[in-house]
Specification:
By secondary structure, this protein is mainly α. The chain has one domain. The protein is 80% helix and 0% strand. The chain contains five helices and no strands. α2 runs parallel beside α5. The longest helix has 30 residues. The radius of gyration is 17 Å and the shape is globular.
Length: 140
């Protein structure tokens, strides 16, 4: 396994534990606003999608000639990630509403998802930018 990939996965794990602890503290403060099972399920989903998209982006990026195709790969992975998130959210709502017959407000779910999406997207972009600067493939 590439050392850059292993480094990313370790940082992702540490970041995820920190976010899980923050989520637990928020649950203790606002128990009606946040379901811990739903939070951990959403976080796990976002972590796997983030790891997969990062591996798809930077896994085959070995030299400067391949970095020229990075923009195309980045756009494709971002679009695919968007479709995966939409499909996951739709699947969750369908299961909860039509299979489990649970009529609940999805506002807390949506806010939690948007926050996790933003936090992990910022994290991934920061690490990608650091990787590109270290390898001299960032265009100024």
């Amino acid at each position: 396994m590439n050392s850059n990939v292993l480094n990313f996965l370790v940082k992702l794990l540490i970041y995820s534990v920190i976010i899980a602890v923050i989520g637990y503290v928020l649950y203790l403060q606002f128990p009606n606003a946040l379901n811990p099972f739903t939070f951990l399920m959403l976080q796990t989903f976002v972590v796997f999608v983030t790891a997969a998209s990062h591996l798809a982006l930077l896994g085959p990026l070995n030299n400067k000639h391949q970095s020229l195709k990075f923009v195309n790969r980045f756009m494709a992975v971002t679009m695919l990630k968007l479709f995966v998130y939409i499909g996951g959210l739709a699947g969750y709502i369908i299961v909860k509403k039509y299979l489990l017959y649970e009529n609940e407000s999805y506002a807390n779910f949506a806010v939690t998802f948007v926050l996790l999406y933003a936090l992990y997207t910022i994290f991934e972009v920061i690490l990608i930018m650091k990787f590109l600067k270290q390898n001299g493939s960032a265009q100024n």
